[in-house]
């Protein structure tokens, strides 16, 4: 298997693609928030947010004849159908990192006989880079959660709750504290709190009225999570996250 890539579980070799070059930006695009005022030098800086990340993949595809090339290209277009939404993208030379990308723009082809060359423009709506393996840590006492990345990770918490008042507290590596509180009338059950998507579900039903507080963000380093009250067990699922 050559130095290619795997997209949605399928390797480029199996798609009859040879990767000849790639452009993976070190950081996502930036959305700057400046405000200028007439008569004042410079600008007010209201911060920055990360935009999308676009990855360019230069490829060639080789077929036995021009008709075979057309068939392979049509199959390729179907496989990269952007309506399938962003899918996992992993490079052979960086196998422990994963991007979530989809095809954007046109797919122009330069054809010479039964050989075609083209560039796949893959955009990551979620601009961050993640570990390919999801970390899963659980416990009934204090849990130590380490994020090895350079950007905060947004975990999913699976909380077994005995009902009534309770609390889950995150002591972050940067000194900040975040909390999730269960109301005194919260029923028992398993609560799934997806901090990335901002959803709270109990036994497959929305449970927003029973839980208030912060959706956790795990900065780089060692963070601790502890519980009290009716909270019985916590499982933390997350990926190390990089800018």
UniProtKB/TrEMBL annotation:
Organism: Alkaliphilus peptidifermentans DSM 18978
NCBIfam families (alphabetical): phi3626_gp14_N (TIGR01633)
Pfam families: Sipho_tail, SPP1_Dit
Domain Siphovirus-type tail component RIFT-related, first and last residues per copy: 19-124
Start and end residues of each Siphovirus-type tail component C-terminal domain: 149-242
Source species taxonomy: Bacteria, Bacillati, Bacillota, Clostridia, Peptostreptococcales
Signal peptide positions (record): none
UniProt protein name: Putative phage tail component, N-terminal domain-containing protein
Matches recorded under InterPro entries: Dit_BPSPP_N, Siphovirus-type_tail_C, Siphovirus-type_tail_N
């Amino acid at each position: 298997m050559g130095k290619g890539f795997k997209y949605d579980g399928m390797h480029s070799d199996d798609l009859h693609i040879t990767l000849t070059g790639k452009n993976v930006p070190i950081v996502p695009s930036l959305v700057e928030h400046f405000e200028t005022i007439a008569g004042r030098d410079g600008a007010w800086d209201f911060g920055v947010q990360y935009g999308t990340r676009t990855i360019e993949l230069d490829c060639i595809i080789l077929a036995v004849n021009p008709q075979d090339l057309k068939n392979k290209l049509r199959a390729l277009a179907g496989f990269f159908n952007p309506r399938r939404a962003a899918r996992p993208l992993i490079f052979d030379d960086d196998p422990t990192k994963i991007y979530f990308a989809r095809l954007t723009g046109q797919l122009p082809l330069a054809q010479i006989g039964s050989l075609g060359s083209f560039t796949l423009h893959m955009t990551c709506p979620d601009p961050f880079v993640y570990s390919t393996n999801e970390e899963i840590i659980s416990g009934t006492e204090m849990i130590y959660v380490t994020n090895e990345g350079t950007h905060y990770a947004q975990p999913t918490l699976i909380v077994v709750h005995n009902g009534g008042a309770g609390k889950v507290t995150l002591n972050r590596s940067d000194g900040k504290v975040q909390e999730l509180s269960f109301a005194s009338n919260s029923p028992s059950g398993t609560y799934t709190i997806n901090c990335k998507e901002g959803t709270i579900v109990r036994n497959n039903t929305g449970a927003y009225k029973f839980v208030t507080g912060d959706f956790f963000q795990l900065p780089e380093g060692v963070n601790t999570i502890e519980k009290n009250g009716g909270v019985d067990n916590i499982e933390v699922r997350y990926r190390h996250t990089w800018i």
